[in-house]
Specification:
By secondary structure, the protein is α+β, with helices and mostly antiparallel strands. It is 25% helix and 21% strand.
Length: 308
């Protein structure tokens, strides 16, 4: 009985035969996987590797690596940035640099400004219905085309709007009969000037006065006060004793106004009595390091200041 038990465990003849009808239902799973791989493989894929060691054949799939974006997509993105930048610089903001001392200490020599070109754009102009707009107010700082030479830009503060009556007594602005408190105005250089400080005066004493303005000035005087006509603005520099402004060349037409500066985005030190720190060249001559000179090259504390 022990031998028969041993025969059942070791001899294949003792395993029952599988019927033929049942054999047809047996499926080789590995063969199905290989067939599926062959169907899914792309045309340029490697051929099926031969089976070895009785194992089913396998398929090598190619690996795709994207290193750079498509060239046309890059060009398209770059052109989009350029178009947006051109739109902004043409219709919305414009950079300017302050070259003179006439607006110190509000704006210093070497300040770089961004000017909002839409804030002062008159009704009926392009984009007026889509972007904010407001009228020009007294106290606004504006950038405008110089009336005597429209290709040049000037920046001044609006003192008088249409209908205002103006005069200066000892340099103090009187608006509609009332003296004005102007904390932004400075009066550096106190030598007397009857034309500059007692405006309007009957004496044609300054050779820098535009002759055409002198004629127009006489036409707009009432009781010793200058009356600002319609669509015109009277502007002064904050550095009152060192500014060539409406006192010398006249009113600013409404259509000449470009916009209103709203932020100082960078500032380089210039030659100005109000600049407390020496220029980089002066620092180097004293033996300081190049790093100190580079740090002093710009007025870092003025960057991103709001212009008021």
């Amino acid at each position: 009985m022990g031998r028969r038990g041993a025969d059942l465990l070791s001899t294949p003849a003792s395993i029952p035969a599988i019927p033929e009808s049942f054999k047809s239902a047996v499926v080789d799973v590995d063969a199905v996987d290989v067939a599926q791989d062959v169907r899914d493989a792309p045309a340029h894929a490697s051929s099926v590797l031969p089976a070895s060691g009785g194992q089913s054949p396998r398929v090598e799939h190619p690996v795709h690596h994207i290193i750079f974006p498509h060239f046309l997509d890059t060009v398209r993105s770059f052109l989009s940035v350029i178009v947006i930048a051109l739109f902004v610089l043409t219709f919305i903001v414009q950079p300017f640099r302050i070259p003179s001392e006439s607006m110190e200490s509000t704006l210093m020599v070497g300040d770089f400004l961004l000017v909002n070109k839409m804030a002062e754009r008159p009704p009926g102009s392009l984009w007026f219905w889509t972007l904010p707009y407001r009228e020009v107010h007294r106290g606004d700082i504006v950038v405008f085309h110089f009336p005597a030479k429209p290709s040049e830009y000037l920046v001044k503060r609006v003192i008088g709007v249409p209908g205002d009556h103006l005069r200066l007594v000892d340099g103090v602005v009187y608006l509609n009969g009332r003296p004005q408190q102007e904390p932004y105005a400075i009066y550096r250089g106190s030598y007397p000037d009857s034309f500059r400080d007692q405006f309007p005066t009957g004496a044609y004493s300054d050779p820098g006065v535009d002759a055409r303005w002198w004629v127009q000035l006489r036409e707009n005087l009432q009781n010793g006060e200058l009356v600002v006509p319609a669509d015109r603005y009277f502007v002064l520099g904050d550095n009152r004793n060192n500014s060539r402004d409406s006192r010398y060349w006249g009113f600013v037409p409404r259509e000449n106004i470009v916009g209103r500066p709203f932020v100082i985005y960078f500032s380089v030190r210039g030659i100005s009595p109000l600049d407390p720190t020496p220029l980089p060249g002066d620092r180097l001559s004293r033996g300081n390091s190049l790093l100190s000179a580079l740090i002093d090259f710009a007025r870092w504390d003025r960057m991103f200041q709001i212009v008021r």
